[in-house]
Amino acid sequence: MLWNKDKLFCDINPTCYAISLQKEIYKRHLQDLLNKEKFAQDFQTEKLPNVVSHNASNMIKRAAGVNLDSQINKANNIDLACKKINGILIRPGEVFSFWQLVGRISEKKGYSKGRVIQKNKLVLGIGGGICNLSNSIHLLIVHSPLEVTEFHTHSDALAPDEGKRTPLAAGTSVSYNNLDYRFKNNTDQLIQLLVWCEGEMLHAELRSEREFPWSYGIVEENHHFKKEQNKYFRNSKIYKETTDRTTGRVVSKDLIWDNHSEVMYDYSMIPEDQIKNEA
Q1: Nearest CA-CA partner of 84 in 137, 12, 125, 33
Q2: Could you tell me which of 104, 128, 102, 133 has the C-alpha nearest to residue 117?
Q3: Gap between the Cα atoms of 62 and 41, Å rounded
Q4: Fewest C-beta atoms under 10 Å: which of 36, 85, 160, 168?
Q5: Strand ranges for 29-68 from DSSP E
Q6: What is the average pLDDT across 144-171?
Q7: Element (H, E) at 95
């Protein structure tokens, strides 16, 4: 058999993929042992007084072509992970790590099969849908002065938009534990993260000891879909705007994502007025 020199070791077969993944997991463990970051690990049931940002999202999609069982499993997976994070305190200088708190996921811990992206395809996998939780957390952090130190993206077009387009409604990827979501408390006060499920809704809230002098907003520009060869992609530029609470003046506008996401659903469901054709 001829060897394809351009083929990655992890792409040879499932066993090679598993070996490569385990290598990355061990490498991350070693990096965490050697670095000098202090990870957040203390919890508090009492809520800090000031709400910095909050959001809520529906965990279960009911639509044509969507497997309801995988959606219910997703909600279960998110609930289990929330219980490992809810109430975590992040002290000044500390780092929040999604996987340091959630830990390795498995069927023995109650996780079920939900949708995951593997090699750019939607498949079923244990813990599927947990990226919805990391994305909700990311939405909190970009509406705060905290510093995102590790962020990985997947497609921002996994399913058709429900109603009006909401920037950053999806797109934050986590995979134990080589793809982590991390942020650092670079402020001078205590921060608290709350995440919990009520019915089919996922709630997320970021709290602090006192109000910050700035407010934060997300602005999306040049949003459109475009066909590239035989595939469609969602494109946009997403900015974080920081506004002085006292003067109302925008003090900064920073690009946080140059979005180029492959559409993972039926192309016929893309709104025609949002498709940008070649000039």
Answers
A1: 137
A2: 128
A3: 36
A4: 36
A5: 42-43, 50-58
A6: 89
A7: strand 95-97
* pLDDT(171) > 90: no
What average pLDDT does the structure give for the chain? 89
Those residues whose C-beta lies under 8 Å from the C-beta of residue 90, and which sit 6 or more positions away, are: 40, 96, 146, 183, 185, 190, 191, 192, 193
pTM (2 d.p.) = 0.88
Phi/psi of residue 273, nearest 5 degrees:
-75, -5
> pLDDT band at 163, cuts 50/70/90?
confident
DSSP string, 162-177: -SS--TTSS-B--BTT
Q: How far is CA 213 from the centre of its chain?
A: 26
Crossing angle of helices 131-142 and 68-85, rounded to 10°: 50
The owner of tokens 């991350």 is: 28
Structure tokens at 224: 């459109």
Q: From CA 279, how far away is CA 32, in angstroms rounded?
A: 49
The DSSP H or E segment spanning 67 is: none
Phi-psi region of 10 (alpha: psi -120 to 50; beta: other; left: phi over 0): alpha
